[in-house]
């Protein structure tokens, strides 16, 4: 019922709606309305309650709870099954369990806090409460395992575009899986899969976005290379707006990918916002480090480099680590 | 306590042990011993009970229950965590859930019946009650996703060797993942993985072995290409003996693989028992069928073929399907 009250208040945002009107609309007593609104105020909703005029929603809190997301969500596949946790170990872990239990494609797991957030290769990802977007999406595309990296590119394109659209920041993409603002990492993408030898069962794509994280919340060892949207734009941003924009763009790009079997649209975005292309990079593989120039992305999102002998080589995401020569980017 | 009674009876198999001796050894009353033995007889154990002489184990039933397996198991990693189900949808599915929940490497899931057994690409695998080995192993090797096929080869080597050792049958290996007797399939291997783009989180290797399955239990559409160990050797075989032998050989080959980072021992076995090598095969990929001669396996278990132009090509497991030209093999 909270959802219906919230929906009615939002439709009239900034204007008063009487307790009686709410009561008739939703079909419960005025006392029940009053109790729910009291609870919502405790949850952080700024609501005016004036006798003989009724209730007026001034401002929602920065929450990612289901009601808030569902009321404004416009997608039909991505987020059609939405699961929210105030706190969880890792949204990717939870998504794996959900997928193993049969959760449908498009399921989104979102948490207000991760207590065991992970980056690539099991590295820790700090995910403090209430200040970031810690989210995973379950997908079931027809892909071979080696193609899973396409989903990373599609996600990077979605996140960078959404951050730019909502906040006006200059989000860039460090190939293959980091989103960058001012040469610092604002978001990491972790793509995992369940697969047979030649076909993907499902893909989990997780993202951790530092939205309103303060610099001092980052562990000391990453402080010089981590940033948040807030640090870049100078004020707090509603996480919900970013989540909804990511899901909207992601759905567009994903459905286009499924329909046309091509991620060229995503790659176009990754090229445009790339902070890697045109720069000197170090290609770090298991047994050696090679210096090269990042030249372009292929239509499948693989990196083309010019090696020291002047030849063009293709780098497949996941095989190597790519770093700038002088700093993090 | 059933395990202790069973262990004592087995140590004295064929000989009498008195109720009093059992009672002292295990530390329960003679009435409790009598009750447990009554239950064991109902479970299919052939036990003589003669007054003034005691109890004598004549024969165990063909069961894969934990007590039976654990008492005789000699491995230290593979099967160190053993989970048995009288009936389950699919041991691979269950293994995935266990792995997602943190089950350790070497966990083995075994079921007396699968109600939703799967082969590759979600194909049905008939797994009737009490007559086959439906088993999955959880592994956590340091591998890239493209190397997961090595585990298939290692498993094929283990199963073929175990079937030969225990039953004397002439089990062959149809590259990459089928065990064959008399040109018919007796076992399929399904390797699945959870992975990041460049590193495997865990591998689930499942096997379905038709041990005592009668030909009429196979669905009509596979009857001409499916067989069982029983059909080949002419009598029923204790499944437990095969399971224990598989786990023993698997552990040897797997620990050797981990230690030396090479599956050459497994590949040697796969070569020796191969029914593919030396034969004409059809290489079936997404968009075409090519005829070739299967020539050899590489050290990594990939298939080398001689194509129609006379050139040697490498076929990576999972990319294509390999069939004999004239029949199933």
From TrEMBL, chains A, B:
SUPFAM superfamilies named among the record's database cross-references: C-terminal domain of transcriptional repressors, Class II aaRS and biotin synthetases, Winged helix' DNA-binding domain
Cellular component annotations (GO), alphabetically ordered: cytoplasm
Protein name in the entry: Bifunctional ligase/repressor BirA
Sequence ranges assigned to domain BPL/LPL catalytic in this UniProt record: 58-258
Record key words, sorted: ATP-binding, Biotin, DNA-binding, Ligase, Nucleotide-binding, Repressor, Transcription, Transcription regulation
Similarity comment: Belongs to the biotin--protein ligase family.
GO MF: ATP binding; biotin--[biotin carboxyl-carrier protein] ligase activity; DNA binding; transferase activity
EC number of the protein: 6.3.4.15
InterPro entries associated with the record: aa-tRNA-synth_II/BPL/LPL (IPR045864), Bifunct_BirA (IPR030855), Biotin_CoA_COase_ligase (IPR004408), BPL_C (IPR003142), BPL_LPL_catalytic (IPR004143), HTH_11 (IPR013196), Transcriptional_repressor_C (IPR008988), WH-like_DNA-bd_sf (IPR036388)
PANTHER family assigned: BIOTIN PROTEIN LIGASE (PTHR12835), BIOTIN--PROTEIN LIGASE (PTHR12835:SF5)
GO biological process: protein lipoylation; regulation of DNA-templated transcription
Ligand binding (biotin): 90-92, 114, 118-120, 185
DNA-binding span(s): 19-38
Record field: catalytic activity: biotin + L-lysyl-[protein] + ATP = N(6)-biotinyl-L-lysyl-[protein] + AMP + diphosphate + H(+)
Function: Acts both as a biotin--[acetyl-CoA-carboxylase] ligase and a repressor.
Classification via Pfam families: BPL_C, BPL_LplA_LipB, HTH_11
